[in-house]
Structures are given as structure tokens and as C-alpha cells.
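Deliverable D4.2, example record:
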Amino acid sequence: MEIGTVVARIELDYVKPIHLDDKVRAWVSCTRVGNSSFDLEQVLASEDQSTIFAKCKTIMVSVSMKNMKPVPIPAKHRAILESDLHKSA
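Output generated by the structure prediction step:
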């Protein structure tokens, strides 16, 4: 593998405790695509989405596995991310 992805930053807000009997679903969407980085938004919520348990924003960076320096997001991956980005808009 020549190109990998690393986590550059995570922002996490705990909104409400999750209890053992809670049924929880996770949603992930791409909210921004840059040259070498992209943002993912994650939400943990009840199945009917009436209760939000946590919200998270993660900044991911595409890097060279040889030197761990940022590189442009590969075209194949960019297409997938941009496709999800348009669903979120």
C-alpha cells in the first residue's frame, strides 16, 4: 500500500448517556473533501433518530506510507467521498 489515511483531528460531543437497553444506530457522512484531507461526521442516535447520544467530526488525511506526508486523495477514493458529499447536501 503506497497511500494510506490517518486521523488528524477528532471532535466528539457526548450528548446523552447510552444505557444497556438502548438500541443505537450510527450514521457516517462525508461533509468536506479537500486536496489531501476530508471530513467525516458521525452521529450515534436511537433507531428512530429521536435521541442523539453523540456527535463526532473527524478530519482524515491521505498520506504517503513511505514518509507519512500528505498526498492528494486518490481519484477512486475522491469519487466515493464526493458522491457521499452530494448526498449530505
